[in-house]
């Protein structure tokens, strides 16, 4: 017996006829009778035209076909999401939306709008994230101990440092600077 009882796509207000330019909204409903292993739930929106005609010339006939794809978009509704946006010295992960005005006798006008994607990673589930970061530095007679409140952070979070500086040099320290370095591992 299949765990999948039903899979349904429904449009807002039970509409299935739309005017050009109108927003299409809806939902995908999945009903299960028991747990089911799945990698994800996707939806594809596609618009295309197809035509076929036959030309008869005496004893032979020639079949002509034509196809035009208007759009073909697949989105993940549930499952592994997109990788988190990232900028690094050797590459990055970037996202943008691009709008284009297609002009017949002139250069097209385009606009790119960049946006950030953050993965919904729960640091509470990661045992390594609860470890405190502690960095002792010593250069006689100066000693510094810094620590963070935890060992991992998500993009956009504030990293709070606390520490102790022991100055045995006899010279006043007027300023301290902390530099954080990010290491990317495959």
Overall outline: elongated
Order of helix and strand elements from N to C terminus: EEEEEEEEEEE
Number of domains: 4
As a percent range, the share of strand residues is over 45%
Q: So how many helices?
A: 0
Measured distance between first and last alpha carbons = 41 Å
Q: How many whole angstroms does the radius of gyration measure?
A: 29 Å
* Number of distinct beta strands: 11
Q: Largest sheet at a glance? A: 3 strands, antiparallel
User: Which stretches are poorly predicted, pLDDT < 50 over at least 5 residues?
Assistant: none
Give an account of the 3D structure.
The chain has 4 domains: 1-37, no CATH class; 43-78, no CATH class; 82-119, no CATH class; 126-186, no CATH class. It is built from no helices and 11 strands. The protein has strands at 4-11, 26-32, 41-57, 60-78, 86-88, 91-93, 95-101, 109-115, 134-139, 142-148, 161-167. It is elongated and about 105 Å long. It starts with a strand and ends in a 19-residue tail after the last strand. 0% of the residues are buried.
Write the layout of secondary structure elements.
Elements: E1 4-11, E2 26-32, E3 41-57, E4 60-78, E5 86-88, E6 91-93, E7 95-101, E8 109-115, E9 134-139, E10 142-148, E11 161-167
Antiparallel strand pairs: 1-2, 3-4, 5-6, 7-8, 9-10, 10-11
Q: What structural keywords apply?
A:
mainly beta, 0% helix, 3-stranded antiparallel sheet, single chain, elongated, 186 residues
Quick summary:
This protein has about 190 residues and is an all-beta fold. The protein has strands at about 5-10, 25-30, 40-55, 60-80, 85-90, 90-95, 95-100, 110-115, 135-140, 140-150, 160-165. Helix content is about 0%, strand content about 50%.
């Amino acid at each position: 017996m299949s765990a999948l009882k039903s899979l349904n796509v429904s449009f807002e207000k039970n509409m299935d006829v739309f005017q050009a330019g109108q927003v299409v909204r809806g939902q995908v409903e999945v009903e299960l009778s028991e747990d089911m292993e799945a990698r994800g739930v996707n939806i594809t929106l596609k618009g295309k035209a197809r035509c076929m005609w036959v030309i008869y010339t005496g004893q032979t006939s020639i079949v002509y076909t034509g196809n035009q794809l208007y759009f073909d978009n697949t989105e993940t509704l549930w499952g592994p999401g997109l990788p988190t946006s990232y900028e690094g010295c050797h590459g990055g992960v970037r996202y943008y939306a691009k709008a284009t005005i297609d002009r017949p006798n002139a250069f097209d006008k385009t606009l790119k709008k960049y946006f950030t994607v953050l993965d919904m990673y729960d640091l509470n589930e990661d045992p390594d994230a609860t470890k405190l970061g502690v960095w002792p530095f010593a250069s006689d007679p100066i000693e510094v101990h810094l620590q963070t409140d935890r060992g991992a952070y998500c993009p956009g979070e504030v990293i709070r440092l606390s520490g102790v500086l022991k100055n045995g040099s006899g010279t006043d320290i007027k300023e301290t600077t902390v530099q954080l370095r990010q290491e990317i591992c495959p």
